[in-house]
Amino acid sequence: MKKISVLVATVLVAMGMTSCGNSHRSASLKTGVDSASYAIGIANGAQFRQMMEGAPGEPMNMDDLLAGFEVALKNDSAAMRMTPQAAQAFIQTYFMQVQTREANANKEEGEKFLEENKTKKDVFTTESGLQYQVVTEGTGEKPTEKDRVKVHYTGTLLDGTKFDSSVDRGEPAEFPVNGVIKGWTEILQLMPVGSKYIVWVPSELAYGERGAGSDIGPNKTLKFEIELLEIVKEDADKK
Q1: Which of 35, 33, 95 is closest to 60 using CA atoms?
Q2: CA distances (Å), origin 105, targets 8, 101, 108, 207
Q3: Which residues constitute the domain of residue 48?
Q4: H-helix or E-strand containing 208?
Q5: Is residue 173, in this structure, part of any structural domain at all?
Q6: By CB count within 10 A, which of 35, 72, 120, 220 is most buried?
Q7: Cβ contact 161:223 at 8 Å
Q8: How many independent structural domains does the chain possess?
Q9: How would you write 48-105 as a 3-class SS string?
Q10: Cβ neighbours for 42, distance < 8 A, ≥ 6 positions apart
Q11: What gap in Å lies between CA 183 and CA 192, rounded to an integer?
């Protein structure tokens, strides 16, 4: 069985909608193939909707999307306002421009925040631009770049959006100090075991222009609450 592509999903979405926007074709579901067709439409339509909602920039205009799709599906070249080749080129250029604007705006927002934040009481700024505030200063040893550590953490955007938390999962994270983003590698080596710091990581010490996942956009400055629980020592029996 051939894999159903996103393009097919678009067909199914388009066929299930009319130009009225809120009106929908009725599903017959009289035969097995009818039900299979409807199930494919539901499954892939939902997936395509998620992709559209995750697209950068403003929400897509579904009426225009369906208008363009319909004339292309019918191969009505006279009604097309751009060729398929021109459409593909426009899509690439458009989303590159959207991502560039978003990256520049995020960079400006982060730099403005860090400039103001560094003037606050008890906020320290390192040479790299990393900022941190000590909540609890531990009394244990500090890890080196070659160590493995166990930590609890919560990561948020500057607007408070939470994107990750070992605390919420109820299980500490364990990883090598040099196996994470640059900002983490730096701050962990400043923290004695038992410490809890609030850390603000500039985008260049985090995920940079590429971002990460659906929440961390390009050039985002990140905030973390990090608690260093222990330096994980190698089991002597494994040496």
Answers
A1: 95
A2: 35, 6, 5, 15
A3: 6-73
A4: none
A5: yes
A6: 220
A7: no
A8: 2
A9: HHHHHHCCCCCCCCHHHHHHHHHHHHCCCCCCCCCCHHHHHHHHHHHHHHHHHHHHHH
A10: none
A11: 16
Which pair of tokens denotes residue 169? 């999962």
User: Residue 120 carries which DSSP code?
Assistant: S
Give per-residue pLDDT as tens, 127-137: 999 999 999 99
**Tell me, what CATH number does 131's domain have?**
3.10.50.40
Tokens linked to 14? 């388009």
List the catalytic residues.
153, 163-164, 181, 207, 224
Beta bridge partners of 232: 148
- Residue 84 resides in a domain: no
pTM score of the predicted model: 0.71
For tokens 């097995």, name the residue: 32
What angle, rounded to 10 degrees, do the helices at 62-73 and 6-15 form?
A: 100
pLDDT tens-digit profile of 163-176? 999 999 999 999 99
Among 182, 201, 199, 184, residue whose Cα is nearest residue 111: 201
**More confidently predicted of 202 and 60:** 202
In the chain the first and final C-alpha atoms are separated, in Å, by: 51
